[in-house]
Amino acid sequence: MPDVSLIQCRDYTLENLKEKIAQSLLNIGFDVKQFNKTRVVVKPNLLMPAKEEKAIITHHEFFRAVVQIVKENNGTPVLVESPAIHSLERVIKKTAYAAVVENEGVEVADPGITRRLIFDAAKKFKHLDISAAYFDADIILSLPKFKTHGITYITGAVKLLFGAIPGIEKSKMHLRAPVHDDFAEFLLDLYGAMTYGMTPPKPIIHIMDAICAQEGEGPGPAGKPKWLNAVLAGENGIAVDYVATMIAGLDIKKALTVVNGFKRDYGVSSAKEIIVIGDTIQDLHVNDFVPATGSSIFSNMFRWPFNTPTFKNLFLDRPVPREEKCTLCYQCKKICASGAISQSAGKKDIPEYDYKKCIRCYCCLEICPEAAIEKQNGRLQWMMGG
User: Fold this and answer.
1) Residue 316 class from Cβ within 10 Å (0-12 exposed, 13-18 middle, 19+ buried)?
2) Which of 147, 193, 242, 252 sits at a 20 to 30 Å CA gap from 325?
3) Please, is 54 exposed, middle or buried when counting C-beta atoms within 10 Å of its C-beta (0-12, 13-18, 19+)?
4) What is the pLDDT of residue 300?
């Protein structure tokens, strides 16, 4: 359904969160009694070990509130996530999630165990390997953190399901879908598969942490925290992402997972169909939310030349490490699916980039724990309005 609950929430105190989240579920017609005797996947955004004030991961108290609501209604919560670089065990250990998992007795699924999900209605990616825990669940609770993103413009409910793909396999998907629009279509194939392709179907409820969101060069350490003071919920992730994008005052036309999602007609085909329950978009709207820098060149007309090294080097942003911040941890090298990054071999203590191989997925920028990688314009990017 395209109903979206939107409720103002100004802090992360546990009782306040439980009240707001319970009301959000009520607003969209979800009875918490449905958790009774069910196995419930609870999927937060755990991109990397990070301090929560950086707004990179779903706040641990937000996760705790959902877990307690499930348990209080006789359900069994299971944490399911697969970070891009770090092991899930390490991310939990290095964050406040460790205490929540221990204190609440939350089962943690092994992200390395996968099963194939087949969705013949997908546009391109009809077979995807995802965490087996989703198949074993009765209900899926998706807890996205609303953030800006260098490729998808925003990351929210649709993008969060990318975490169903195991670890480093995520970066390989950028090789298979190197253009912004192609990557958005892949995400929508995955969203469609998880929403409509499971047998039997699994109810997916998206409960978004947009209390302290992230703006700027998200979704990793280079982004900046920005308070939106909102909790959103809905059964339709595309609709949830639309409402979040609108309260942030961002350009909906650039949120490809939303506009292309409307074209898919996955339960919602236009903004007019979305019913916002609770507070209004106008009530919580902000005017100064900063998007990630991007380029206007990623339209369909540029699909062919984008694949050539000359075009990329002349017209596209390139990721460039900064020596004063780089610690040579080489997480960038580990995540690079195209093999464009190698160890430092020159006078500068920074990884070496082969920009002829670089596909401009910016995974290195996203994952860098020191925010040491920045985008620099291609030499002729000014010609394209970049």
Assistant:
1) buried
2) 147
3) middle
4) 36
Give the model's pLDDT for residue 168: 72
Average pLDDT over residues 177-181: 81
Summarize pLDDT for 192-215 with one digit per residue, the tens: 999 999 999 999 999 999 999 999
Distance (Å, rounded) from C-alpha 364 to C-alpha 370?
11
Output the six-digit token pair for 311: 């075009």
Which stretches of the chain are DSSP H helices? 14-27, 60-72, 88-93, 97-104, 133-136, 157-160, 169-176, 180-196, 237-247, 256-264, 281-284, 303-306, 309-315, 331-335, 363-367
Q: Output the CATH code of domain 3-284.
A: 3.40.50.11440
CA atoms within 13 A on the CB side of 119: 24
Contacts 24+ apart (CB under 8 A), 198-204: 198/117, 198/134, 198/135, 202/134, 202/137, 202/138, 202/139, 202/140, 203/34, 203/139, 203/140, 203/235, 204/139, 204/140, 204/141, 204/142, 204/235, 204/237
Q: Where does 300-384 sit in CATH, by number?
A: 3.30.70.20
| Amino acid 346: pLDDT | 75
Give the largest CA-CA distance in the chain. Answer: 63
369 CB burial (10 A radius; 0-12, 13-18, 19+):
middle
Residue 240 pLDDT > 70, yes or no?
yes
Query: Fold identical between 3-284 and 300-384?
Result: no
**Count of positions (residues) in the chain:** 386
Instruction: Show me where the domains of the chain are located.
Output: 3-284, 300-384
The rounded distance, in Å, linking the Cα atoms of 72 and 76 is: 10
Q: Could you give the CA distance from residue 130 to residue 190 in angstroms, rounded to a whole number? A: 10
**Average pLDDT of the segment spanning 266-285:** 98
